[in-house]
From TrEMBL:
GO terms for molecular function: structural constituent of nuclear pore. It comes from Chlamydomonas schloesseri. This is Nuclear pore complex protein. GO terms for cellular component: nuclear pore outer ring. It is found in: Nucleus, Nuclear pore complex. GO terms for biological process: mRNA export from nucleus; post-transcriptional tethering of RNA polymerase II gene DNA at nuclear periphery; protein import into nucleus. Residues 183-207, 978-1011 are annotated as: Disordered.
């Protein structure tokens, strides 16, 4: 079971893994660091977290479960650090894998030492270089383990404790031998235990085992000089001589050891070795020493009292003799076995690549003399003779005949390895077969025997094949650690193999598509592991899977930055190390497949970041996705931020519950602060997206050689504007976004203007500060500064001009167009949608945005005029895009004018809503103030909205027909509106659920997070059928020919049989698709189309107004959800509906004012309302275009309003905008007003009497 990890104390914050990885990746994407530096940084992150977890686990020893959980995570992070270290060694380390073999000898004629030739062979052969880098990685892991004070895979040997001088001398054995007990050896030479078959004194045997354990540790870490120093210091110089036959740094140092060896080797020593090799043959003594070490590893154990020491000593000599089988019993971990076998493979292959030069026979000691000496030392004559013959074959290069001379000692090593592997397996199986160390020894020896036999042959697979089939074999992986560590060993094996396709497939299959991970081409050993093991048990531990996903996604990104993921090259600082996998993916199909899997994994990681609420980390990763995926996740990121913003639009439920203990003002202030914080968070997200998209666009414009990595992006220059516009449009047509949520979405489109205004403000403050400093330095008075401060209007105008100069015209057009479309839809709804429209202007859209659009239009037009003038002066032609600039300027002017009209409409609507709220709660003595405010509001309605002809210039038929002709809709005016049944007591609707636009629960209709109500099942079908039949009957009743489709035969016949055909309107009603649900659910869409001519367009507008306002016979009441049409048609519908509603509100407000005691015949209470409706066109006077706002009599003021209404509303006047039902209701309200006025007069007369 999973154990919860301890949490931090209050007030503490520890950066999460994804936060640290995000900071590192941000440096890579910003090109401030190269891919190599990023690999090192991520390794440091994993190592630091592993160390912190181990320290924390040490403090939890009194809580065993928590201690074990912390230790398991520390092991996992340590394995992750090792993986990134391997990645660095394979693709980032620019140093030669085996060094340079020391400095060249001057005046040597270009002759090279055998060691230098070996180092050059490693550099030139990719397989050898790859193996050498893996060996260097494994040795660095052992060195780090020793630095931490761990056992470092000693097997049965001692730890990392220090040794005393002369500690390994056999004093106790000497004393016991002199006592003559016969329990110990009878001689004190190094071969005495094996020759006599007697043990050392127990204390000396323990010291011997401890010493050999430390020697194995140091050899495992590549520290041969320390091995020799240790043996000499503890009193065993003979052992130092035996182990140092390959040189003070070993036969072939790699990695850091090779670099240290190159620095330490002096030129005079190099000259002596070169002279010796010239005289006696290059590499001969090295081959002979390896052969001797192999013989020592294959000797018989002595005494039975020093099995541990003998096992370690045999492993040490076996490793020096290239025998992985002899070293297998000492390998306690997977790293030990991998190092032993890779080191043996490297040295044996190097012997094949650079064979030793044979030694001249006359210079050798006679073989008979050597055999006689061995016989005198107790060696059987036959064995002595065979050993001498084998040694001479190595020295003379005659082993296995002339054809095997190139193999040198490798053939003997392979034969001995094959023989000793079987013995190791048998011994391990007989001795504690149930112990983990024995099982590891069995697996290691089996693999070693198989590969040693393959290495003995001249033919065989490369290093990657050997590593995959033997080091990554299931038997060897059994000792690799817990499941989480084993999964990382699989990743390490794939990195060693170098096939990025298999690596990406394995990571995607194990972490994302677990069901098809093994079948998806996990590759080699990864597929062998199968099932849950491939993910390290991540299916049962989500946090482990999340950590693995985060690091895997960054690994693929870094591999792309290094230029090795798809086989491509990188920019400056991005190239991999020699022998890398950059050329392994030559097939374009495989490269595309690998890139696709990497994109999927990165998408999964970014989507999980959004799901976990870590929204601030996502923007950099979005830049690396393909356009389709990037657009999808950017929309999800914006939606998540919008949910937070919309969910805080109302006071919190807990705050509402404690309203009795806090004032309403405090609650409103807290809600405003919460909304401001959410808005600041959204603005920060916008700035982050803008920064990264702009940075990637600038990065793409640079040459590849100037980049720090090969990380590729495909950001468009206007990426963020397109993403914001796409998101806003999708929200406007999404059923999950209610009226308030759609209004809040417009905030995203307003952020570019806010950012431009902030930049202009900052620039102005800097300029003013500089001017103030100059004035102080010049001894000027403070009067000038005070005068400049007083000119607030001029400063605001300058800031607005600066914001307009820094704003993209298309971004300004986007926000204006979206806001105007939302206003149309919200104005044609009910009181809830009207409240959302008020919210749009009060909290969402910043003031001055339409003025900035007008300034941008002026700038575009002036620039175009200047370009035309310059072209005319030079005798040329204007730029081809000049017409586009003028069209953009015209569109901005039209949209700005429309937005100003909507601001007026919703502003008056909001004032009326607040006045009505005051009217309901008004107490005694407040009637006079309430009546005065109501009179002022009524006057604003009449003077600003009704009299000037609101929206008349924008809602013309000519604009609609021009849009139809330019839209390519087949010469027809097309309108699509999405509707639903309005909420009410008798409405059958689906219960409101949490939508994408809401922050908390959806709540009822009218709540800030509530989406539009939806219909389902029978209620939906009934509403759809009633709507379709009602629209058709309404069209027929008006003399229109309704058709279900353009090709309807009945409609064609009706049109052909009529001498003067009536305007035709196509009516198509569609319901929502089921989409897997048992019953269809959602909204109904109505498609209307009319011919592009005035009569048909007017009929279409009338039909739409009747449907939206209600009152069409047979058409059920509906609530508009979305409207798609050209701007002129939409505004024509809005003008009729909104002006008619405004007239009704004015009449109701007039009645309320009279009820408060106001005089119905006073100009302040709007008695001219009916006169404005009935005013004929000839009532307009030349001076009625502008109303007089100064003094004058009440009669002249009323006459001005009537004349202005006649002039501003055209031939039909305001009366044509009212439906018959509205006109009847208006007359009834006016009658009630007159009755109430008469009653007020009677009551006043009684009071006077």
């Amino acid at each position: 079971m999973d154990i919860d990890l301890p949490s931090l104390a209050a007030g503490q914050h520890r950066a999460s893994l994804e936060e640290e990885l995000g900071a590192v990746f941000a440096a890579l994407l910003a090109d401030s660091k190269g891919a190599r530096d990023v690999v090192a940084d991520i390794h440091e992150v994993c190592a630091r977290r592993a160390e912190a977890l181990r320290a924390e686990a040490a403090e939890q020893l009194h809580r065993p479960a928590r201690h074990m959980a912390l230790k398991a995570v520390a092991d996992e992070m340590e394995a992750q650090a090792a993986t990134w270290q391997l990645l660095f060694c394979l693709h980032c380390d620019e140093a030669a894998p085996a060094g340079e073999g020391g400095p060249l000898v001057r005046d040597g004629g270009g002759a090279m030492l055998y060691r230098q030739r070996l180092a050059d062979a490693v550099v030139t052969e990719p397989e050898l270089a790859r193996c050498a880098r893996v060996v260097a990685w494994l040795e660095s892991l052992a060195e780090e383990a020793q630095r931490r004070g761990g056992a470092g895979g000693v097997g049965g040997g001692g730890g990392a404790a220090s040794f005393q001088p002369q500690e390994a001398l056999w004093y106790e054995t000497k004393t016991e031998m002199r006592a003559g007990t016969g329990s110990v050896v009878s001689e004190l030479d190094p071969d005495a235990p094996s020759r006599t078959g007697r043990p050392l004194h127990p204390s000396n045997a323990r010291s011997q085992e401890r010493l050999m354990g430390r020697v194995w540790q140091l050899l495992r870490a590549g520290k041969t000089p320390e091995v020799l120093e240790l043996c000499a210091a503890v009193g065993q110089p003979w052992r130092a001589a035996a182990l140092g036959g390959g040189g003070p740094w070993g036969a072939l140092p790699v990695g850091a050891a090779a670099a240290e060896a190159d620095e330490a080797m002096a030129e005079d020593v190099q000259a002596e070795e070169l002279a010796d090799e010239v005289s006696n043959g290059a590499g001969t003594l090295l081959a002979l020493w390896r052969w001797a070490a192999l013989q020592a590893a294959g000797g018989a154990a002595g005494g039975g009292g020093s099995d541990g020491a003998w096992r370690l000593e045999r492993a040490v000599f076996g490793e020096l003799g290239d025998s992985a089988a002899a070293a297998a019993p000492a390998c306690g971990t997977w790293e030990d076995f991998a190092w032993s076998y890779c080191r043996s493979w490297l040295e044996s292959q190097l012997t094949r690549a650079v064979p030793p030069e044979p030694h001249s026979a006359p210079d050798l000691v006679a073989g008979d003399a050597v055999a006689a000496a061995l016989t005198r030392c107790g060696v059987p004559p036959a064995a002595a003779q065979r050993s001498v013959e084998a040694a001479l074959s190595v020295v003379l290069g005659t082993h296995h005949g002339a054809g095997g001379a190139a193999a040198g000692a490798a053939g003997a090593a392979a034969e001995a390895a094959a023989a000793t592997a079987a013995a190791a397996v048998a011994a391990a199986q007989q001795d504690a077969a149930g112990a983990p160390a024995a099982a590891a020894a069995v697996a290691a020896a089996n693999a070693a025997a198989a590969v040693a036999a393959a290495a003995g042959a001249r033919a065989g697979g490369g290093f990657a094949a050997m590593f995959a089939h033997h080091v990554m074999a299931p038997a060897a992986m059994a000792a690799a650690g817990p499941p989480a560590v084993q999964s990382l060993r699989q990743v390490q094996g794939l990195l060693v193999a170098g096939d990025m396709g298999d690596l990406a497939s394995h990571l995607y299959g194990a972490l994302v598509d677990r069901a098809g991970g093994a079948a998806g081409g996990g590759g080699g050993a990864a597929a062998d592991a199968g099932g849950d093991d491939a993910g390290g048990g991540a299916a049962t531990n989500p946090e482990r899977r999340w950590r693995a996903t985060a690091l895997a996604a960054h690994m693929l990104l870094v591999l792309e930055g290094l230029g090795v993921l798809g086989g491509g090259g990188g920019g400056a600082g991005a190239g991999g190390a020699p022998g890398g996998a950059a050329a392994m993916l030559l097939d374009p199909f495989e490269a595309h497949k690998t890139s696709d899997l990497a994109q999927r994994l990165l998408t999964y990681y970014a989507a999980t970041l959004l799901e976990r609420g870590q929204l601030g980390l996502a923007p950099p990763y979005l830049c690396c996705l393909r356009p389709g995926l990037r657009g999808q996740l950017t929309g999800e990121l914006l939606a998540a931020h919008t949910r937070r913003l919309t969910g805080l639009a109302a006071p919190d439920a807990d705050a509402a519950g404690t309203a009795n203990s806090s004032s309403a003002a405090a609650a409103a202030e807290a809600a405003a602060a919460s909304r401001a914080a959410a808005d600041a968070e959204c603005y920060g997200a916008y700035l982050a997206l803008e920064h990264w998209f702009r940075r990637c666009w600038e990065r793409q414009a640079q040459p590849a050689a100037a980049l720090a990595s090969s990380l590729s992006t495909d950001i468009r220059p206007n990426e963020l504007r397109l993403q914001l516009a796409t998101f806003a449009v999708s929200c406007r047509h999404s059923a999950a976004y209610g009226p308030a949520a759609r209004a809040r979405v417009a905030r995203w489109l307003a952020y570019p203007y806010i950012a431009a205004l902030q930049a202009a403000t900052a620039e102005d403050e800097e300029r003013r500060a500089a001017a103030a400093a100059a004035a102080d330095g010049g001894g000027g008075t403070a009067a000038a500064a005070a005068a400049s401060e007083s000119d607030v209007a001029a400063r605001e105008a300058a800031l607005l001009a600066g914001a307009a100069a820094g704003l993209d015209p298309l971004a300004a057009l986007d926000v204006l167009d979206f806001a105007n479309c939302c206003c149309c839809e919200l104005a044609l709804g009910d009181d809830v949608t009207a409240a959302a429209g008020q919210l749009l202007f009060e909290e969402v859209l910043p003031p001055g945005i339409d003025d900035a659009a007008l300034l941008i239009a002026d700038s575009l037009e002036s620039g175009e005029r200047a370009a035309v003038t310059a072209a005319a002066g030079e005798g040329g032609e204007a730029a081809a895009d000049g017409g586009a600039a003028l069209r953009l300027a015209a569109a901005l002017r039209a949209q700005a004018a429309e937005l100003a009209s909507w601001r007026l409409y919703f502003g008056l609507d909001g004032q009326l809503a607040r006045w009505l709220s005051r009217h309901e709660m008004a107490g005694a003595g407040e009637e006079a103030a309430l009546a005065a405010d109501g009179c002022a509001l009524l006057h604003d309605y009449l003077e600003q909205l009704l009299a000037p002809g609101w929206m008349r210039d924008l809602a013309t038929c000519s604009r609609a027909l021009e849009a139809a002709a330019a839209g390519g809709g087949g010469g027809a005016v097309r309108v699509s509106l999405t509707v639903t049944s309005p909420p009410g007591p008798g409405a059958a609707q689906v219960p409101t659920a949490q939508g994408a636009g809401g922050g908390g629960g959806g709540g009822g209709w009218g709540q800030p997070t509530a989406p539009y109500p939806e219909l389902q099942g029978a209620a939906l079908l009934e509403f759809q059928l009633a709507l379709e039949s009602g629209l058709r009957r309404a069209a027929a009743a008006a003399g229109l020919t309704a058709a279900a489709s353009p090709s309807s035969p009945s409609n064609s016949a009706a049109a052909a049989g009529s001498a003067r055909p009536a305007p035709s309107i196509e009516v198509v009603v569609e319901g929502p698709a089921a989409e897997g649900a048992p019953l269809p659910q959602g909204h109904v869409t109505v498609h209307l189309a009319a011919a592009a001519e005035p009569r048909s367009w007017a009929a279409l507008v009338s039909l739409l107004c009747g449907a939206v306002r209600g009152g069409l016979p047979g058409v059920p009441p509906l609530l508009l959800v979305a409207l798609q049409a050209d701007r002129a048609t939409s505004l024509a519908v809005c003008r009729r509906c909104c002006v008619g509603q405004a007239v009704m509100r004015c009449a109701a407000l007039r009645l309320s004012l009279v009820a408060l005691g106001a005089d119905a015949e006073s100009p302040a209470t709007g008695p001219q309302l009916l006169e404005m409706l009935a005013a004929p066109p000839e009532a307009a006077t030349p001076s009625s275009a502008s109303l007089s706002c100064d003094g004058g009599g009440g009669g002249s003021r009323a006459g001005d309003l009537v004349a202005a209404a006649a002039a501003g509303n055209g031939a039909g006047g305001l009366l044509e905008l009212l439906a018959p039902g509205q006109l009847q209701q208006l007359l009834a309200v006016e009658a009630d007003t007159v009755v109430r006025h008469l009653r007020n007069r009677q009551a006043g007369r009684r009071l006077r009497q």
